Fold this protein.
Amino acid sequence: MSVFKKIAIADLDKLFAKTSEKMSIYVPTDNKDGDAVYTEWKDGVKLSDAVNTLRSAKDFFFPQTENLAGFKLVGKTIEMYRTAEEKEDFVLFGVRACDVKSFAILDSVFLADPVDTFYAARREHGIVVALACNDANDTCFCKTFGIDPAEPGADVSAWKNADEMFFKANTDKGAAWLASVSDVLEDAENGEGVVADVKQSINEMMSTLPLSGLTTESFDGKNLLEAFNSPEWKDLSSTCLGCGTCTFYCPTCQCYDIREFDTGNGVKRFRCWDSCMYSDFTKMAAENPRHTQLERFRQRFMHKLVYYPMNNNGVYGCVGCGRCLAKCPISMNIVKVMKTVGKEKA
Amino acid sequence: MQEMINIMKNRAIELMNDGTVARVIGWSRGEFVYDMIPTVFNSVEDVEKSFAYSDFCGSNLSKYLIEQGSKEGKTLVFLKPCDTYSFNQLLTEHRIDREKVYVVGIECQGKLNYELLKKAGVKRLVSADVEGDTVTVTDAKGTYTLPAVDVLAERCVNCKSRKHVVYDELIGQSGEVLDSHRFDMVAELEALSPTERFEFWQEQLSKCIRCNACRKVCPACTCEKCVFDNDASGIATKANSDSFEEKMYHIIRAFHVVGRCTDCGECSRVCPENIPLHLLNRKFIKDINELYGEYQAGEEAGSRNPLVSYTTDDCEPDVVYERGGNE
Ligand code: SF4
Ligand code: SF4
Ligand code: SF4
Ligand code: SF4
């Protein structure tokens, strides 16, 4: 029996319907603006053809807002209780290689001791079906970080070839999902060969991208102070609005704020995304230590290109998804930083 | 276009060299042809090296004058017609000092929205130029034209004015105030039932990721500390946790710019979720026009908007009932 399974793209609905009998399945679908957004599948939801989703897939494991705990006064004691519920299994379908890699980066933060149990529960219950990229945007540069859009990994990898989609399980969780939907899938005896051809054409397509030559050479982990003190940060950041768009769309940005809220008859503790680009970021002890936008701007890129790799065996904190390139209101982004900082001498 | 760029660049260099200005706010090119970066140039060398301009220069540079204009010497700024209204409004609100700014008005035929070009099938864009009603595009498929209305920013399709209301010198032509269709969509929303209208906005606002780009880019949003960032305000929030908070943010943002919003359209341009924020702003502008008489914020520096200038003819609060509000 082949390790590959397949289905006609026209029949994808059957696969989604079969899955949805047992658990929720989220699929990128085009909204009214023509942007791809993850939507829980129900009859009529169609898989988008877009290269990638507007918002990154991190929302499923690290949502923008969540309640962590509640407190209430019982007699003379304060009782603390959990407000978050354990999640049920779900399938996240059509995640691209860049976003798949972003989960590993989030894992290194949230699953390190002490484990973030909220995040861990969602990771445990989420089954990720990754989809190879037959096409890419101008702004894609995953290859710069060694990510292969032809081999997207995750629990199950999928490839599109003409009017068929091929699947291969990479983990036990993925194999269990594939087995649970085997009724609607066919064995793909020709899978090996077809997928090899798809990969080949993806590689050719990737080499024609405008950012295909981008390298990380100026950020080799040996020049922390040189990069930090670069005079270029001033010009690069001079028109940054400090809006936070880049951080909210970024699949690897992971900063959050935790606060308590007085509900009137108790207290709830919640967390929500925060952004290093904000003036009211990280006021833990007294105030934000980064007083100027230059310092805040520099932090975002130093974190991705220098601090994170120094602490994680050279793995960069950017996956090249290109969202910050497409979304920044002033068209400033990590690629511009990589091409400028550390290149002063050139 | 190349001729225009040369003139702009040469003027910037001349005015820096003869000591009229100490710095220039313009654009430089980013990674792609459509990626134009608002840029502060502090030396002639920088202008020579990276000054650029194109039909993708949508950003309104007037707000940068708050910071740059507070520095030593004069600042040269390039302003499109709609940007000059924002500039006047900033003068009215005493956020910038007229003496410290040298305004070069630049002719504008409308600016392109790259997202729309992409949705029109443009791939690996090489160049795009607006020429009246058409846009000449060169991309992987070759050179062809597209109707401008399909790929211009909404605010340019419904341009309210091609006239520069303030400038020290002009490059190209200054046009006229236009008879635009900018209130048509507002009228359509007004014609909906309250439930339908609520659903329209609920759907739009539920997309909001609260990136704050609309607030940060807005030339009317210039509070030193926004209530949403101020813990002491009691409504500081960094995210919308439910549909109530979504609306709260948007209602406060929109109300706070009433009478001061010039309809420059920057909020809608930068919104990554394509929320039509201009429709909220225009609803207020339309109401002001109808209830207090025509008023265009930024048309004249120093003008008082109807909400801060009482007259005995002002409408009474019960006008809301006459307009269909519930008693
Ligand atoms: S880099 Fe761009 S997206 Fe990020 S905060 Fe600055 S202006 Fe906003
Ligand atoms: S920094 Fe930009 S390109 Fe890199 S992962 Fe984040 S959004 Fe994507
Ligand atoms: S960055 Fe790479 S993996 Fe991500 S969408 Fe683009 S080509 Fe695919
Ligand atoms: S720019 Fe758009 S997504 Fe961002 S806060 Fe404003 S409305 Fe929300």
